[in-house]
Write a structure and sequence with these properties.
36% helix, 7 helices, globular, Rossmann fold, 192 residues, alpha/beta, two-stranded antiparallel sheet
């Protein structure tokens, strides 16, 4: 994938890796039941981010897939707490690009920062997110980074639930990308 005509750091074909990760996401993190989502809506399925982000055999290849999407000229990777911190770590280890953690709220002690890690105005950043339904948390994080003078190149999610995240992210003025869509991953249910 390319950003502004500059190729990402992808080396070769990642389709085999991508297929394996898709299978693992469905096998280990796709739950069926009655779930209340953070958006307030109910769903008959749920992608449990902690069931894929805490397993090294899934997180390591996810880091490689994320790295393949991050252009060489990115200065920082951002991971909103708590869910995307492991993703930012994996992508940072794979790319060598430093990451920052975007906190939901600052603490009233120590440094009281909203962004943990080193940042400088004008730096280019990619915001990572795990499972995106409405995109609200990713948008809030991107806006915090923008308010600190950083240039948010795009928001990259692992799973787009295809329930409005893309439209909301783009309406907020950010480019939206995802590694997988709900529909794509659900096609793997038939293969299991």
């Amino acid at each position: 994938m390319e950003v502004a005509g500059v190729p990402s750091r992808a080396e070769g074909d990642t389709s085999h890796l991508r297929d394996g990760v898709a299978r693992d996401l469905v096998k280990h993190a796709y739950l069926v039941g009655d779930f209340l989502l953070s958006s307030g809506s109910r769903s008959k399925y749920y992608f449990d981010k902690y069931l894929f982000e805490t397993k090294p055999h899934i997180l390591r290849p996810l880091g490689k897939l994320l790295a393949a999407e991050i252009p060489d000229y990115v200065d920082r990777i951002a991971g909103p707490e708590l869910g995307a911190v492991a993703l930012a770590t994996a992508a940072s280890l794979e790319t060598g690009i430093p990451f920052v953690i975007v906190k939901k709220a600052s603490k009233d002690y120590a440094t009281q920062k909203l962004i943990e890690g080193e940042i400088h105005p004008g730096e280019r950043v990619v915001v990572l997110e795990d499972v995106m339904t409405t995109g609200t948390q990713a948008i809030v994080s991107a806006e915090k980074l923008r308010s600190m003078g950083m240039e948010v190149l795009f928001i990259l999610g692992i799973v787009d639930r295809e329930e409005g995240a893309r439209a909301n992210v783009e309406a907020a003025g950010f480019e939206f990308r995802s590694l997988f869509t709900r529909g794509e991953l659900e096609s793997y249910l038939q293969k299991e």
